[in-house]
């Protein structure tokens, strides 16, 4: 039996589970809100073209209105000034879109402190227990934030000082960009950076440093609690938008069970 036939059989028989990590796209999907004077993306929207009526008697279809960075989405290097000479979303290597993934769980610490920042020491402690980060793979950062994703106010967690959500320190972002063997970093929050990342030096360090190093980001993931710390295969399916800085994506993981 070929390898692909073995995989197909394993999925059919439940030995490999397909875990959906994607937030559904709708008008209520939370979106990033940057402070003035910065411009913001639009919410997701459907514009009906026809629905079994005089505009089209036997078909239903819509135009979609959305930003590239709405809902579960992929960030690519050209999204940021530091990566402006890098590749766009239509040029992402396929080996990045189908790659091994590991999960670092910091949900207990994020529950205590919504501004928690992951450190290099946290990752090294995880590696001592689980082994090295996957070469050419993904580090997925579980914070429990997906439990808030049904509600924009809870998800962004704003107060008079701005949004509060967990992220990584500047030192950690630099280490992930320059030393870690990963191709990308995935999170459950609205963006790969912390809510207070504008005040970090450099501002928005994950965007600045990882995208500047030709790496990638995934945001608004769900169900990371269903994945083991190691051993998952991540599949990311963005739209190949020519010139695009990112794209909403269907993201899922293949996980061995039993």
From TrEMBL:
Gene3D superfamilies: Putative cyclase. GO terms for molecular function: arylformamidase activity. InterPro entries: KFase/CYL, KFase_sf. It comes from the Bacteria. Transmembrane segments: none annotated. One of its GO terms (biological process) is L-tryptophan catabolic process to kynurenine. This is Cyclase. It comes from Amycolatopsis coloradensis.
